[in-house]
Structure to design on (371 residues):
């Protein structure tokens, strides 16, 4: 079954009620845009054929690619002293220049603007639904938890949470695959790398679905469960794993047969396993104390008080602290798996926070009294 049919079936399957209020990628609509563009290009080739009487207009283009690749290969032989990364980057740049086509008014007007809008809506819908789900899980009680049970007729609320989490995973996975497929098709139609470059832009705009911090939180949510606790088959829970014993702690998540991601749980500042983790809006994970130090704010003040000009220590993106996500599920996972380490880090953070608070108020008192 082709992906287009599979995606259409998913949107109108038994989960249609769940997807009713959720945005999704208009895969068929975007394919129609590319199909129209392909027709225009076919007409242009026919016109060039009639004008130049060229029996095989694609032959020159194909031969040009072969010659270009041969030239690149010879040049790489002469550049044997360069590193493998430098040679690969040079090849990509030269092939990108060769394959790049003229601007396509039809696609530039409709395709990328529409895809960016849809991806942004899907990312926003996914993050809001996961935030609400995990808040109900972490919250010990209250009116929201009671209303949740009432809406589901007081069935096992953990069972319902796990089921909704599975629906959210399917939702983000199917839309991520749809975006990947349609961008690949764009590059195939236009013989360009513009689609691949757009995927990089999506990451910069923080709408890359499989790099969302809420996806890591959802994975930690499942790792915190066991199949026997809620009667779920163990096969599903084996898709989520967390290895904290090695030098590089990682969380692994398998979304499909072809998509498997590993998320590093090492803080890039202290180079240790993250404690009280926060994910900046650029997607990088840090300990709260390390993130506050990088943003030049005190721990008790929090990341919300960080300047909009403060940069991420890894990617140097600005304005990434104000919308930082507190990773409560991941912190709960670390608390349960690394109890001694978690207690030690808690003592250190509290001691540092008290020290900073004391110094801060001493400075404020001196400034107010003038001595």
């Amino acid at each position: 079954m082709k992906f287009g049919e599979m995606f259409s079936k998913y949107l109108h399957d038994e989960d249609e009620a769940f997807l009713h209020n959720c945005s999704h990628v208009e895969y068929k609509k975007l394919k129609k845009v590319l199909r129209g563009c392909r027709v225009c290009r076919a007409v242009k080739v026919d016109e060039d054929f009639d004008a130049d009487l060229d029996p095989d207009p694609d032959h020159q283009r194909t031969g040009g690619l072969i010659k270009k690749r041969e030239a690149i290969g010879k040049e790489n032989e002469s550049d044997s002293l360069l590193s493998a990364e430098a040679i690969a980057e040079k090849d990509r740049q030269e092939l990108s220049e060769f394959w790049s086509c003229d601007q396509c008014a039809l696609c530039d007007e409709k395709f990328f603007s529409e895809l960016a809008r849809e991806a942004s809506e899907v990312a926003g819908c996914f993050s809001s639904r996961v935030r609400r789900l995990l808040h109900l899980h972490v919250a010990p009680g209250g009116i929201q938890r009671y209303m949740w049970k009432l809406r589901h007729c007081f069935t096992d609320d953990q069972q319902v949470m796990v089921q909704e989490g599975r629906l959210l995973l399917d939702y983000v996975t199917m839309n991520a695959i749809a975006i990947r497929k349609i961008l690949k098709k764009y590059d195939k139609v236009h013989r360009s790398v513009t689609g691949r470059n757009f995927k990089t832009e999506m990451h910069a705009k923080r709408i890359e679905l499989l790099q969302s911090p809420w996806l890591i939180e959802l994975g930690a949510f499942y790792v915190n469960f066991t199949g026997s606790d809620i009667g779920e088959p163990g096969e599903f829970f084996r898709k989520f794993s967390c290895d904290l014993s090695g030098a590089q702690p990682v969380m692994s998540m398998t979304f499909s047969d072809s998509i498997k991601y590993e998320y590093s749980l090492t803080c890039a500042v202290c180079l240790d396993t993250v404690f009280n983790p926060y994910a900046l809006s650029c997607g990088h994970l840090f300990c709260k104390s390390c993130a506050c130090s990088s943003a030049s704010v005190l721990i008790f003040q929090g990341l919300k008080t960080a300047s909009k000009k403060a940069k991420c220590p890894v990617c140097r993106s600005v304005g990434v602290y104000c919308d930082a996500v507190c990773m409560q599920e991941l912190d709960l996972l670390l608390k349960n798996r690394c109890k001694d380490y978690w207690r030690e880090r808690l003592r250190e953070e509290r001691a540092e926070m008290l020290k900073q608070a004391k110094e801060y108020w001493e400075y404020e008192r001196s400034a107010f009294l003038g001595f």
